[in-house]
Amino acid sequence: MQFSPPVSRDRIISAFPKCYNPQACLQMKDDWNVEAKVACQDRTTRLQGYDRFKMSKAVVVGDLNVGKTCLINRFCKDVFERDYKATIGVDFEIERFEMSGLPFSLQIWDTAGQEKFKCIASAYYRGAQVIITVFDMADIKTLENTKQWLLEAVRENEPDSCFVFLVGTKRDLLSTEECQRTERDAVKIAAEMNAEFWSVSSKTGENVQEFFFRVAALAFEDAVMKDLESGTTSSTQIGDGSILNDKTLEVTQEKPKKKSCC
Ligand SMILES: Nc1nc2c(ncn2[C@@H]2O[C@H](COP(=O)(O)OP(=O)(O)OP(=O)(O)O)[C@@H](O)[C@H]2O)c(=O)[nH]1
Prior knowledge:
GO terms for molecular function: G protein activity; GTP binding; GTPase activity; metal ion binding. The chain has about 260 residues and is an alpha/beta fold. It has helices at about 35-45, 70-75, 120, 140-155, 175-195, 210-230, 245-255; strands at about 10-15, 50-60, 90-100, 100-110, 130-135, 165-170, 195-200, 245. Strands 1, 2, 3, 4, 5, 6, 7 and 8 form an eight-stranded mixed β-sheet that branches.
C-alpha cells in the first residue's frame, strides 16, 4: 500500500502580515521580532514530532447586524450569507496556522450583538488575547458604540493584556468618497481605543484574509515573546494560553460546529 502524507489544512504565514492603515496600526515593523524568530527556529529543530498546539483566543464584539458572523464565516468557510440570522449567545471557530514552522491555532468567538443575549455572550469574553470590535461602515452610529463594546470586553480581562482591532465591515456598500470619510472617522476612534483599524467586505472578501492573518501573526508573536520574558522557552508550550494536542483538535474540528452554545 502506498503511503500518502496527510494534507495540511494549516494556513501558512511565511511573511509578517502588514497593517491596513499606518495611521491606525498596532505595530509598524515589517518582519517578525528577531528574538521571536530565533526562538521559533530553535524550537522547530528541537520539537520535531511534537503534537501540541498553542491556541490564542479572539472575541468578536459589536452591535447587532454589523456583520460579525459574516466576517468569521468568510474567513473560516469562505461563504457569505445574505440573510440576517441573529447569533444567539455565542459560537466559535478554530483556525489553524503555521508560522515560522510552528503550529498555532486561533479560537475565534462570535458573540451576539442583541441586547437580550449580552449576558450570555459576555461570559465568554474572559481569557481573550485579542478583542475585535466590529462596526458597519454603512451605519455610522455603530462606530461610536464600539467604545462601549470594548470597555465591556476589557473589563473581563487583565488590563493592557489584549490586542484590540477595530473593523469596519460592508465597505462594498459605500462609494469611494464615503469609504474614505468613514475610514477617517474610524482612524480617530481607533486612536482613542488604542486599536488597529481595518476596513473589509465579507461580501466580496476584500481584506478579510489579510485581516485575520494579521491578527494571528500578532497573537502568535506576542505569545512567543511572553514565553521568552517568563523564561519558559525550553518548554514545548508557547505562551500562557491553553494547550491541546493534535487529536483533541482534530476531534473538535470534525464535530459539527455547536451553534449558539450558551
Ligand atoms: N453588503 C454587505 N452585507 C453584509 C456584509 N457583512 C454582513 N452583511 C449583511 O449584514 C447582515 C448582518 O450580518 P451578520 O454577520 O449576521 O451580523 P452580526 O453582527 O453577526 O449580527 P448579530 O448576530 O445579531 O450580532 C446580514 O444580512 C449580512 O448579509 C458585507 O460585508 N457586505
